[in-house]
User: What shape does this take?
Amino acid sequence: MSSDLADRSLSEFPAAPRTALLLIGLLLVATNFRGPVTGVAPVLGQLREAFALSPAEAGLLTTLPLLAFGIVSPFAALFAREYGLERSLFASLLLIAGGVLLRSAGLAWCLYLGTAVIGVGIAVGNVLLPSLVKRDFPARVATITGACALTMGVSAALMSAAAVPVAAHAGWQMALGMALVLPVLAALVWSRQLSQRSAPAPGTASAPHGGPVWHSAIAWQVTLFIGTNSLLYYLVIAWLPTILTAAGLSATTAGSLHGVMQLATAVPGLFLGPLIGRFKDQKLIAALLSALLGLGLLGLALWPAAATLWAAMFGFASGGTFVLALIFMGLRTRSPQQAATLSGMAQCVGYLLAAGGPSAAGWLHDAIGSWTGVLLIAAAMSVVMGVCGVLAGRDRTIGGAS
Assistant: This one.
């Protein structure tokens, strides 16, 4: 009897409990999209010692997932059309879990291969989760998306804060392996959705295919806005604990501030959407967010004693920039299909641009001899991001007038 009950379709259960189970599953799935990647940075020093890694080689541990995001993300919709949204999301959780186990095996090639597998799993889930939200919660997209962003930030913050104490008591393998709890728990809850087999929503990002979007100046402004933000965000994600310990902070404090920064990225999602609706265009908001991000980088470079303020400021601005870029996908396009093409373009180009950030920062550190110079160069790049954001924030659409 118990096996019969487990095999029953979700359609046999009341709508309210089914919706609640779906929502809980969505939030648990979302916890996997940052923590398994960003939890590496606090123990990067131990990994460099264990495997004699150069800064550029260590930066590759953050670069590999970004390469996977850029290459795999645009094709996730094709995978979902073949196997269904629910099963594709479940497969992404299995990939993340397998990658975490492989990464923690203790061998150098496992460290890199496991990291790449985690990136592939996150890339699939990152694209398909918003599609499922649009399908099942069409009247509450902003609210549910904000809640998912918050769970991403909280889980990533917890992973970062716990990494150093766990590594101190049980080693770096356990510090990285503890991320396994996220995909396992999510998979257990999400398995109840496997009786469903639905296609992705029409607005899901698909493989790039050229056309007017790729020849549009507005599309490239949006793409470079989100791409530069991603480059700076993942550069800081990869190296912030190392930068802070080099400035004299303890490893535990550096790991905690790494978590504070990630938690701050979720805050703008709670209010930025309604705020944007009060403005005719988004030029001022894009400029302010870019200025805050640059100020956070300058503060980390010149006054690390106030690292808590600068880390929170950088996280808030980076999270706000990401939310604004997602909103641009709808505001700067004239149809769901055009929005999907722009989303695929921005993710592909943006993540491939960001992939060079962590390794390039490690190389620059070796060439310059300090993290201050690296942060000053990053702060200068925030000006480029601001220019792209102001241009993208103008009231006009791809192929149309204002």
Remarks:
- The radius of gyration is 21 Å.
- The mean pLDDT is 85.
- The first helix runs from residue 2 to 7.
